[in-house]
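User: Hey, my collaborator sent me this sequence without any context and asked if I could get a structure. I don't really work with proteins. Can you help?
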Amino acid sequence: MVRERTIRWRLTLVFCLAAGALLAVCYGGFYAIFQRVLRDQFDRRLGEIAAPIIFDIAGDPEDKDVDLLDLPYEYFEVLDTSGRVLQRSRNLSVDLPIITQPGLQTVQLSGVGEVRLTIIPFQAGSNHWLFVAAGSTREIDLALATLRRLALVLLPVSLLLTAAVFGFYANQLLSRIDAVVTQLRQFVSDAAHELRTPLSVLHGETELLLTKPRSTPEYESAARVMDSELKKLSRIVDGLFTLSMADAGQLRIAPEPLYLEEVLEESCGLAVPLAKHKKIEIERHLQHDVLINGDPTFLRQLFLIFIDNAIKYSPSGTRVRVTLTKEEDVRISFQDQGIGISKEDLPRVFERFFRAAPSTENQSGGLGLAIAQAIVHAHHGKIECESQPGRGSLFTVHLPVSLTSIA
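Assistant: No problem. I've predicted the 3D structure and written it out in structure-token form, which is a compact way to encode the shape of the chain:
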């Protein structure tokens, strides 16, 4: 718990530092763009103000209208090419400290502060003059100052909210990772345990054969044992592959229109030899013409898992009842008269390598019901299980009536 808390705080700190740097860059970029836009608009406004005044002066060079201008925070001058002031707005007590070159300039004006100005050359009669239109940048400075104060408030608030949200989700993420790692360790341990037995048998048989020459019947017996164990290994590996594909969301089914009772009949027929060996009767109560869109291979595997388990966990002389009905959904039930499952074990029967009742006859490697659940989920269905120790189990598969959307 302490280690998890330390990791969470470290992750939160690293994330906040990265998020803080990103937010600072974003705020800085926004501030620079906002400042640039304000200044560009201000410069255009100076040119728009200057245009009618220049037009008026050019039409009547003797008129001294500029000397009468007295607009708040806006200043005007008319200069000759040598820089001598010919006219000056009333609110200017001193000459503007400018360089007499056309274009935009920023200067400091005593008692006013920063002033932005534009110098525009024009011709008034035979004279070549310069018109200066200037304006105080105080409104721009106020807007930028407000934006800076807002950023200073929003940046820490954003970081705090980000840290809170990330801390909450980091806690959940770490808990899920811990659960997944624990499950993975258990899965690897169980898989190693399941694989160890057939591998040990194979190793023992090969060592026994290699110690000295054997007779033909002895070789045949060893070969049959090795073949059985290799088949068991193959089933375990195939089951692990199927489940890994399901975990990755890549269990691809190939749906096609089919009559479900035909797939069930075929599955029951495949299980008949095992049932006869244990003197178990397979009863079929199948509704006809149950048409769905499903993957016949996976559905056959699904049905065989339930039928095989029902036979293996049932005593001789009993019966397994297989039922197919179609109502609001399609229901396939597998009921046996076997040893049953305890109430404590019932929630875990679909876990991998979990056996409620260990059996040397079980060939699924503890993966059968987990594979069945993956197949049913791929068909957008569900499985229900009812069981009582000593009285048997009932597994019911629910499939949607319309499976035409499965891809």
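In plain terms: The longest strand covers residues 113-124. You can pass these tokens on to your collaborator as they are.
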